[in-house]
Amino acid sequence: MANSNKKKKNSTIDWASVIMKSIIVAIVVIVALFFIYMSGLLPKCVEGIKITKKDANGKVVTIDSLPVVEVNYYYSQLLTTYRMYGYLDGIDLDSPVNSASSTATYREMFYNNAAASVLSTAMIDDIAEQNGFLEMSGIDRYTDIAVEGVRTTASDYGFTSVEGYLSQMYGTGFSVNSLRNCVRRDSLSQEYQNYLGQFELVPTQEDIDNEISNNVTLYNTVDYNYYYFPATVNSPDVSASLELAQAEAGANVDEELYAEVLEEANYIADNATDPETFRELVMDALEGDDAALEAFADDADPTSIVGYSYDEITQYHGEDSEELDFLFSDGEAGDTIVIEATAGVYVYLLNDRYQDETPNVAYRTLTLTNEAALEEDATAEEIQAGMDALRAEAQGLVANVTDAAGFCAVVKDNSDVASEILTGGYLSNQIYPTNTNTFTDSDFALNDWLFSADRVAGDVYYLPSSDNTTLTVYYFEESAPAYIALARSTLITASLTAWSDANLTAASPEYQINMWALQNLSY
Q1: Are 226 and 349 in contact (CB under 8 A)?
Q2: Which of 38, 69, 426, 477 could bond to 173 as cystine, CB 3.0-4.6 Å?
Q3: At 100, is the secondary structure helix, strand, or coil?
Q4: Three-class SS of residue 19?
Q5: Mean pLDDT over all residues of the chain?
Q6: Secondary structure of residue 1 in the 3-state scheme
Q7: Vertex 173, ends 36 and 37: CA angle to 5°?
């Protein structure tokens, strides 16, 4: 009988091997986590904001999803704007906005503000895509040009790579692809609204006539004289400046001086009959005040204001001001008024109220680059040959253009200037420049062409830059009196607002924000 008693194998565990393997695994995990952290993989992949809407059947669908790094792009831009206006001075972003009613911090509030801005942009982008706008859009070319501009900026700041610059600006993980997504998202909505305002929501002449007749005051312009007499102790010298006239609140008023300047203002109001007498009476009132009278030297008239619109007066004085009522409603040419303010007195003379007939033109531009001029050591002959070839190319591009939409399409497909791509090169409500001190003969020739009385829609003008690096093609659309051009742009703005409101209401868009991820995966 065989011996069944077998010797058992040694079952002792090799702990040294186990520990070594565990250490290797730990090292691998740590290295992997390090590279994940350094690459910004988590903020690149984890969703920060999701934008949803309701479709025609009432079903909730996602129209955009932003990873943490892209949300930080909008958050950073928002903070930059707030800092520019001083809104963040003395604010701890992690402190409660209102400790008495909520624990929400400023950081959380600003993230929500950024999400709200992205919501409307994403909604407009979605509508543009649904309506087939991408077929005529130049957004891809625009994005390429914008990204190249950022590359140049990064190089100018000494960064060896654009990714390093972007990471410093918007956080680890923010790449060129992230930039493309954000630029495209923002710019497509701008481009589509520009298109709507230029081609889809254009008011008819009847619409414009009705707008003007129903709101005559809004489309009037006034010429007037005015002066402000301060009544403060040690007040600065104040000439007829609208800006300076606003800086009176809280001043140390001298009651006796106030009575004197009020009497002077009333005397001017009772005796001024035209701009000349108004100026003379103000100068008489300022007799002995050499500093104030300096503004009147060399026949200057600092009291004269010419061509101010309803909107401009409203911006300075408010919708319920005596100034606005007098200049645009109550007063007649030759009338005067004295208006008492907190620390001084105003006196006004209304000279004229009228509809501004100044010609306003609308046109488009297409700018092309002369590559020959950018070559090192290029000769004058080579540069001119490049410009001649560029002009021939431009003429070929516009040869078959029959309307503004056609020229717009050419701009989007060929312009080397990013802003032209978004607008289709469109410029409206342009007036003949008043400051022509630096104008060249070419500048004068262009403006004379634009504002010529015989200019008609579809006319084209070619203008090389002074250094022959670019050629700009001008496509004329229309000319109209200033008040009509203003009514047209006012109606377009109102239509765009109504269009946006209606679409946002119909789709009920919402955003869902991953606040934990935004606060913990941003670095």
Answers
A1: yes
A2: 69
A3: coil
A4: helix
A5: 91
A6: coil
A7: 25
One-letter amino acid identity for 171? Answer: G
| Tokens encoding 504 | 């946002």
Average pLDDT of span 335-363: 96
Tokens encoding 55: 């479709």
Spatial separation of the C-alpha atoms in residues 523 and 511, rounded to whole Å: 23
Q: Encode pLDDT of 144-187 as tens digits.
A: 999 999 999 999 999 999 999 999 999 999 999 999 999 999 99
Could you tell me the two tokens for 169?
């600006």
CA distance 480 to 362: 9
Question: Apex CA 363: angle with CA 357 and CA 367, to 5°?
Answer: 150
Contacts of 107 (CB under 8 A, 6+ apart): 93, 94, 519
Classify 210 as helix, strand or coil. Answer: helix
* Sign of the dihedral through C-alpha 217, 221, 223, 224: positive
Tokens 């670019």, located at residue: 470
| pLDDT, tens digit, 9 for 90 and up, residues 212-253 | 999 999 999 999 999 999 998 754 444 444 444 444 444 588
Centroid of chain to Cα 460: 29
- Provide the 10 A C-beta neighbour count for residue 6: 6
Orientation angle between helical segments 380-398 and 404-414, nearest 10 degrees: 140
User: Which residues are within 8 A (CB) of 475 and not within 5 positions of it... i.e. 6 or more apart?
Assistant: 363, 364, 365, 366, 398, 401, 404, 407, 425, 458, 459, 460
Q: What is the DSSP letter of 328?
A: I
Contacts with 385 (C-beta within 8 Å, 6 or more apart), sequence order: 372
Compute the residue count for the chain: 523
Rounded to whole angstroms, the maximal C-alpha distance in the chain is 146
153 SS3 class: helix
CA terminus-to-terminus distance, the chain = 77
Is residue 306 helix, strand or coil?
Answer: strand
Residues in Cβ contact with 354 at an 8 Å cutoff, skipping those fewer than 6 apart: 220, 221
Residues 152 and 42: their CA atoms lie apart, in Å, by 28
Tell me the C-alpha distance between 182 and 396, whole Å.
Answer: 35
Q: Can you read off the two tokens belonging to residue 507?
A: 């789709």
DSSP three-state, residue 280? helix
pLDDT (mean) for 381-409 = 97
pLDDT tens readout for residues 108-131? 999 999 999 999 999 999 999 999
Tokens of residue 97, six digits? 């906005």
Q: What is the mean pLDDT of residues 292-312?
A: 95
